[in-house]
Structures are given as structure tokens and as C-alpha cells.
Design brief:
The model has no long low-confidence stretch (mean pLDDT 94). With 180 residues, this protein is an alpha/beta fold. The chain is 44% helix and 17% strand. The chain has one domain (3-178): 3-Layer(aba) Sandwich (Rossmann fold), CATH 3.40.50.450. Helix 1 packs parallel to helix 2. The chain has a seven-stranded parallel β-sheet, with helices on both faces. Its EC number is 3.2.2.n1. Keywords: Cytokinin biosynthesis, Hydrolase.
């Protein structure tokens, strides 16, 4: 994998572990020379991952819709910033540039990006690995909900393989690399 798209919150959350473990992932990406593709903001976990990749010698590409340049704090220190017209273009560009995806803890925007990416995999738009970085069991309720949907007959059993959930960045990257 040469480039990974990371979906992350524009907030850092209220558990210091979110920042600590995000930095660990960012350091690994930088040292493994895996370029970060992300939303382009300086705030929250988005900024933490970008800063750590840069500090670890890696490259960072941000993709941000024009309208968000006014609302979000644009990261000025990244390697490349790509401006697009809409959120739809943002997600399409992130997917085009990336060899895989990782979801860090985040809110509705992160969930939306995550579920669209899973939906695209389900219908065959891409076959790239998708990881849930399950810091402090943040994604455990979501994994349980997905397993409930499978048990209730609303999602095929095979769809569980569409994502990898790990709480360790090295294990997550290793599993993702094995699926490329």
C-alpha cells in the first residue's frame, strides 16, 4: 500500500487515548512511507494524524471542498491540498487516490464516509481494504450493530469481511496489507 485514506473526527474526543493512538498510527504511516490522504483540516484527530505523518517523514494529501475552506481550519503545512467543489467529489477523489481506508474515531461525517465506503465495497465499486481503528473500543458498538444486522437477515454474512477491526495499528496495517 502506497496511500491510505483516513477518515477522522474534526474533534479530538474526550479520551486522551484517541490522540495517543492516532499519533501511533501516524508515526507508522510516515515510517513505512505510506502517504496519508485525508480531509485536509488541521483540527481534531484529522490534524493529529496529518501532523504525525509529517513529523515522521511522510507525505500528506488533503482534499477539501471549497465551501469548507471558510468553516474548517485548513492545514497549511501538508504536502498537497486538493480543492474540490463538493463532498461527493471529495470522497470520490479520496477513493481514487487511495489503496485502502482506515476509520479513526469521529462523528457523523466519519460515519458517513465509512458507510459509503463499505457500501461501495458491497456493490463492487472497489475492493480496497477498510480498517476500523478501534481505539478504546470506540467502534465495538458499531461492529455489534453490523453483526446484529447480519443475524437479523438484513446484511449477508459475507459482508462482515468488508472491514477489519483492530485496536493495534501494526496489526491493522498488517491485515490490510494482506488483503491488497
Amino acid at each position: 500500500m502506497k496511500r491510505l485514506c483516513v477518515f477522522a473526527g474534526s474533534s479530538a474526543g474526550n479520551d486522551p487515548l484517541f490522540i495517543e493512538r492516532t499519533k501511533a498510527l501516524g508515526e507508522m504511516l510516515g515510517k513505512k512511507d505510506i502517504e496519508l490522504v485525508y480531509g485536509g483540516a488541521k483540527s481534531g484527530l484529522m490534524g493529529v494524524i496529518a501532523d504525525q505523518v509529517l513529523e515522521s517523514g511522510g507525505k500528506v494529501t488533503g482534499i477539501m471542498p471549497s465551501r469548507l475552506f471558510e468553516k474548517e481550519i485548513v492545514h497549511q503545512g501538508i504536502t498537497e491540498m486538493i480543492e474540490v467543489k463538493s463532498m461527493h467529489e471529495r470522497k470520490a477523489k479520496m477513493s481514487e487516490l487511495s489503496d485502502g481506508f482506515i476509520a479513526l474515531p469521529g462523528g457523523f461525517g466519519t460515519f458517513e464516509e465509512l458507510f459509503e465506503t463499505v457500501s461501495w465495497a458491497q456493490i463492487g465499486i472497489h475492493t480496497k481494504p477498510l480498517g476500523l481503528y478501534n481505539i478504546a473500543e470506540y467502534y465495538t458498538p458499531l461492529v455489534q450493530l453490523i453483526e446484529h444486522a447480519i443475524k437479523a437477515g438484513f446484511a449477508p454474512k459475507d459482508n462482515r469481511r468488508l472491514f477489519i477491526d483492530k485496536d493495534d495499528p501494526a496489526a491493522l496495517l498488517k491485515e490490510m496489507e494482506s488483503r491488497t
